[in-house]
């Protein structure tokens, strides 16, 4: 579904939470600050890990419960579940037709049963359109690379599709369509909320290794460049006067599944949201707060 297909409704405020691994848990800090200010979203758009943490908030859990759920949904334990046969697939895929024909659809380095169970425990039979805050989940068509916006149906199925990072987890089929991680097509899908009156988006650029000492670091540098260029291009394509984009800068390196950093990251989200609050209240037509100070060191704000 394209963003234009969502234009039938016009939410007052949409929150967009992009990819970033564990860093995306900063979304919970953003929601906390907004709720303290009496501001509530009418729509949440999520991509990859941002979709997982956005769904926790959209379901209406209290702040303390949100962090507890986040720690069970995104952990190093989840990615430590090695999939038996992965290396055999890589070795035999090019030479054994029966393996090669479905390699792209079946291959992964990790077993997804634990993450699927954790998501099921958290969301059960919940549907995107029935959450306390309606939600859109951003994914990517595995065959064409096109953006796929999931607006209805199982929360569990949508989240599993949006976090299907190539090589890590297998692609996931939703309504007959094979999907992979949403960051592949748009790491911060502000376009999915283009019909909202005001958009507040939170995302992260991918850090690039300072030194390249081997093939893994070289691949990481190339991936970081590609992802960051895609993020900037997508943001430029959807510029608007009623859009605020937060791209917090971390003062330390945080691994993709470094759950010990979650409290720090939630605090980073709070800091970024407080920096953006005066501008957001202005866009929403709320009275200005004289005590608020816009701290551009806490977050880079545009829009």
Describe the protein.
The chain has 303 residues and is α/β, with parallel strands linked by helices. The protein has helices spanning 26-36, 49-58, 63-73, 76-79, 86-92, 97-100, 103-106, 113-123, 155-162, 215-237, 262-283; strands at residues 13-17, 43-47, 135-141, 147-150, 172-174, 177-181, 198-202, 243-246, 301-302. Strands 1, 2, 3, 4, 5, 6, 7, 8 and 9 form a 9-stranded mixed β-sheet that branches. Strand 3 and strand 4 (147-150) form a beta hairpin.
The average pLDDT is: 85
Measured between the Cα atoms of the first and last residue, the distance is 26 Å
Mind telling me the C-alpha Rg? 19 Å
Q: Helical content, roughly?
A: 25-40%
| Major sheet summary line | 9 strands, mixed
Write the layout of secondary structure elements.
Elements: E1 13-17, H1 26-36, E2 43-47, H2 49-58, H3 63-73, H4 76-79, H5 86-92, H6 97-100, H7 103-106, H8 113-123, E3 135-141, E4 147-150, H9 155-162, E5 172-174, E6 177-181, E7 198-202, H10 215-237, E8 243-246, H11 262-283, E9 301-302
Describe the structure in brief.
This protein is an alpha/beta fold and 303 residues long.
Key features of this structure:
303 residues; alpha/beta; 9 strands; 38% helix; 13% strand; globular; disordered N terminus
